[in-house]
Amino acid sequence: MTRNKMKIMAYILVHVLVMCCCGSIGNISSKAQQHYDYAVDDYYELDDVIKSLPAGSDVTIMIREDFDCDFLDPSKEQYTTLQYTIDFNDISVYFITENNVNMDIEQMSIEGYGSYIEFSPQIIFKSSWCNSLTIGTYSSKEFNTVVINGDVCGEPELWNWSAIQGTVPLGSYYRGGGLIVCDANVIVNGDIYSGKNGIGLSTYCNGSVIVNGDVYVEDGGVVNGCGVRTFDSSVVTVYGNIYGGDIVQGEYYSDDRDIDCHGVWARDNSTVYCSGQVLSGKVYNGEKYDNIKLTESAKFYNIDEKASGYGVGVRYTTHVQSYGWKDMSYNGESSGTTGQGKRLESVVIDLYGNDNLSIRYRTHVQSYGWMHWVPEGGVSGTSGESKRLEAICIELTGSDKDKYDIFYRVHAQGYGWLGWAENGQPAGTAGQGKRLEAIEIKVLPKGTIPAGVVGYSYVELGKSANNSAYAGKINYQTHVQSYGNQSYVYDGSVSGTFGEAKRLEGIKINVNNDLTGVSGGITYRTHVQSYGWLDWVSDGQFSGTAGESKRLEAIEIKLTGDMEKYHDVYYRVHSQTFGWLGWAKNGEPAGTAGYAKRLEGIQVVILLKGSQAPNNLPASNGIAAYISK
Questions:
Q1: Which of 378, 470, 501, 580 is deepest in the core (most CB within 10 A)?
Q2: Between 84 and 560, whose confidence is greater?
Q3: In angstroms, how far apart are the furthest CA atoms of the chain?
């Protein structure tokens, strides 16, 4: 599952244009049946790639760093902008780039049906006249899902209007901006930005957009300064602020219409939700336009704790030691307590807003272990038995379950807030006698990721685990004094021991490319008593010693290939005398040097590039990952 906000259908015009406009096709490899990998340098080759793929296939397309969308117009002997449309018909596409891509393209549109399109990095669209990115068209075609995992940056300019003062000529209406959506559903896990003379976000023809950031327009325009404009039955949800930029030169159109200078302008039967502030800009003469302008049938809502801007919500209550049942919590609110040492004993969860979507859940209870699944509204756990909850799994059911993800995270004794689990993954601890103290739950459109760490949601112990070598995104096994090889653990669980004075003697680590969705691997090396740093090994090979009673004292871990481009690896160790140290990252050393101290346990997790590190608990705040004399 993904986190703070959900995935849906559609993608951004600029991104698509970039992808479509640039690419030299070179088939890298075919990973599996009907999956393809290509690298492209220009849009001609990209077009050829898309046309060559059979319906129902999926493809990963690398847009190279030198992707250039400037084209020479032979008749004028100068570079000109480009308009381009590409059809994605029943093909799932994942675009990645070597670095952020800046484009100088006039307009790009995406058409297609039955498709899933995802853009991984930020793409900046530099437009000289038209819209930076358009997703969907005025046609009957529909996308299933379009996700943009970065910012949408449109920087429109007015070619010949820079000297205009006062009235803007009739017929010169300009609508350019960051993103335009029509008949499509789009999720933007970042900000939408429009330069002056633009509109940050425009939706038409039943478009649906979720923005997990801000929408804003640069001050200083001549024509537009509108943050969000909606038409027809569009639905927009912004989990941030909306700001319409100042208009400093124009005042009115020649037909006496007001210029667009509003934070939100909603028309027809459209609906806008916003969790932050909405501010309009000003015109040059100092007049203040309405922050929110609505037609009679349009609606605007400020999202509060109990509202759900996308029509589906989750509510839940917990039974807490000493307090009993708590008041109902909604859509990511915390239920339970923190800092009071009170255990959760049972939980009730249900959804609202969609009759085709439901949930089921189960809890791991002290003495009883994993309980049976219960449907929404049912009680999972115990009451009156003083039994703690230790872990929980929640998953969606119903005909619309593939349109949403459910995310949940728990506050666990000794660990604090763990990362977000999703879609049935366990959240909590195992084999440590640790109580759950609080929980947060969110239902989001498919493809949306909540703020905070995603992953590192469940901490079990290698000596009591029973996992395969590829159970998680990252899997690791240690050779421990007296015990030998422990079972594999994954995604932040503890391999080794702590509190038993047992040394780690060796380790194996691998990544699961099917779960991460990208190719690449992992490499690592250990510092061993008497030997010092050993050579680097990779992808499940053994590092350390066996049968020599030699302790590991430190470790370094790095990702390779595409794994390194799109993920970070975090790891920390439990060191003799020092206890749990801080998190190291991407090849940094973790452990000690010059102290002759054994490593006793290790945790390893891979997170999306740029994610924050997991919290330090149970280590002390500020403790280093590597301590040397």
A1: 580
A2: 560
A3: 88
User: CA 552, 557, 560, 562: dihedral to nearest 10 degrees?
Assistant: 140
Alpha-carbon gap, residue 180 to 158, rounded angstroms: 18
Peptide bond into 614 cis (omega under 30): no
Answer whether residue 448 shows pLDDT above 90. Answer: no
Q: Which residue has the tokens 């381009």?
A: 84
64: confidence class by pLDDT, cuts 50, 70, 90? low
pLDDT in tens, 143-168: 555 677 667 766 655 444 444 444 44
Alpha helices, H only, 368-523: 513-516
- Please report which helix (H) or strand (E) contains residue 4, including its range: none
Give the number of residues written for the chain: 629
Q: d(Cα 177, Cα 125) in Å, to the nearest integer?
A: 10
Give me the residues paired with residue 126 across strands: 104
**Per-residue pLDDT, 7:** 25
> Tokens in use for 279?
């501010």
The pLDDT score that the predictor gives to residue 546 is 92
3-state secondary structure of 21: helix
Q: Which tokens go with 516?
A: 């991460």
Output the pLDDT for position 622.
87
494 closest CA partner among 423, 116, 502: 502
Q: What is the pLDDT of residue 585?
A: 96
Q: Both tokens of residue 571?
A: 């790891």
Question: Contact, 557 vs 567, CB < 8 A?
Answer: no
> Residues 7-19: what's their mean pLDDT?
27
Q: Are 440 and 453 in contact (CB under 8 A)?
A: no
Q: How far is CA 579 from CA 33, 490, 574, 624, in A?
A: 48, 21, 5, 11
Taking all residues of the chain, what is their mean pLDDT, rounded to a whole number?
Answer: 78
Tokens of 212: 């997990």
Torsions phi, psi of 221, nearest 5?
A: -75, 170
- Cβ atoms of 492 and 456 within 8 Å: the answer is yes
What is the separation of C-alpha 220 from the centre of its chain, rounded to a whole number of angstroms?
A: 33
* Phi, psi of 494, deg, nearest 5: -95, 120
CA–CA distance, 524 with 511 (Å, rounded to integer): 12
Tokens of 332: 């990511």
Q: What are the CB-based long-range contacts (under 8 Å, 24+) for 529-535? A: 529/553, 529/596, 529/598
The span from the CA of 601 to the CA of 589, in Å, is 15
